[in-house]
UniProtKB/TrEMBL annotation:
Region entry Disordered, spans: 1-39
UniProt cross-references to PROSITE patterns, sorted A to Z: RCC1_2 (PS00626), RCC1_3 (PS50012)
GO molecular function, one term: guanyl-nucleotide exchange factor activity
Low complexity: bias regions: 1-11
Domain of life: Bacteria
Cellular component, GO annotation: cytoplasm
Organism: Corallococcus terminator
Protein name, per record: RCC1 repeat-containing protein
InterPro entries: Ran_GTPase-activating, RCC1/BLIP-II, Reg_chr_condens
């Protein structure tokens, strides 16, 4: 249910912009980092709960994995063990994936969606499952997108935020807990440059470097010092000069301009990286990490890319997701082994 990092800067963590290359069309056509001004640093490669997708340099999309609700967009519900093309979809610049739904942003600013739609997370005005991409009406000039488990967020060129789908905890930010089958504007939020979505909470970064959050807050994942859910955005106090955000299932990360990371929310597995397993209702600094260029979050683990090209991880590790050669939970960042800068 995590979204990966959303970056308010001018480039993704590897400095690339994912320049288009019309000469490549197969599943290995390359991805690169998408420019953070339009789609977030990891937006050309995305993963849902059990499915994965990639944008090639020619703007086509390839998908593989679980497909029980059509989340691969190939017109079937057949699982795919190797990448298959998403038919009829061209000019794509960014992707996002929830638990069982997928979204694609085109160069023309239109948004397309497919897969599970039981709670309206596709935004097409229905609850109908879609096995092929459908255009989301009423949204133009979309610049970035994010997906929670069952809700979807879009940032538009005018720096406003729109949301739809599940809203039982107020994660749509429209002042209600009613689901929305079509995009609804997040209340009172302007000047936004980046967005991220957790399971049932949402966060936004404003151009001034401040962070705003709304939705589920049982573990303090909104960072406002409480565990009270919020139906409209509230500012996370004490955070300034933030350049990137990431959201896990019930925790949130913020990267400061100076290269340090601050984290809050659920911490049972050490995913906040503060050398404890105590939930934090407000931002706490991730221990011993400096010179960080990019961040990402899984359900219950966190990752950082440093300026020197090394990758660091902390949190839950039962499946080896920290990449440190063990299955030991880590409450402090450890370097991922075997990766060359």
């Amino acid at each position: 249910g995590g979204s990966g990092a959303a970056d308010a800067g001018t480039s993704g963590p590897d400095g690339g912009s994912g320049a288009a290359d019309a000469g490549t069309s197969g599943p290995d056509g390359g991805s690169g980092a998408a420019d953070a001004g339009t789609s977030g640093p990891d937006a050309r490669l995305t993963a849902g709960y059990s499915h994965s997708l990639k944008v090639n340099r020619d703007g086509t999309v390839w998908a593989w994995g679980f497909n029980n609700v059509g989340q691969l967009g190939d017109g079937t519900t057949t699982d795919r063990l190797t990448p298959v093309p998403v038919p009829g979809l061209m000019g794509v610049t960014a992707l996002a994936a929830g638990l069982g739904h997928t979204l694609a942003l085109k160069q023309d600013g239109t948004l397309w969606a497919w897969g599970d739609n039981a709670i309206g997370q596709l935004g097409d005005g229905t609850n109908s499952e879609r096995h092929a991409p459908v255009q989301i009406q009423g949204l133009n000039r979309v610049t970035a997108l994010a997906a929670g488990n069952y809700h979807t967020i879009a940032l538009t060129l005018d720096a406003t935020v729109w949301a739809w789908g599940h809203n039982g905890s107020g994660q749509l930010g429209n002042g209600t807990t009613s689901r929305s089958l079509t995009p609804a504007q997040v209340s009172g939020l302007t000047g936004v440059v980046a967005i991220a979505a957790g399971d049932r909470h949402t966060v936004a970064l404003k151009s001034a470097g401040t962070v705003w959050a709304w939705g589920h807050n049982d573990h303090g994942q909104l960072g406002d010092g409480t565990t009270t859910q919020r139906l409209t955005p509230i500012q996370v106090p004490g955070l300034t000069s933030i350049r990137a955000l990431a959201a896990g299932r019930n925790h949130t990360l913020a990267l400061r301009q100076i290269g340090t990371i601050w984290a809050w929310g659920h911490n049972a597995y050490g995913q906040l990286g503060d050398e404890t397993v105590i939930d934090r209702f407000g931002p706490a600094r991730v221990s011993e990490l400096t010179d960080v260029a990019g961040i990402a979050a899984g359900d219950d683990h966190s990752l950082a890319l440093k300026q020197d090209g090394t990758v660091w991880a902390w949190g839950l590790n039962e499946g080896g997701q920290l990449g440190d050669g063990t299955v030991t939970v880590r409450s402090i960042p450890v370097q991922v082994l075997g990766l060359s800068p």
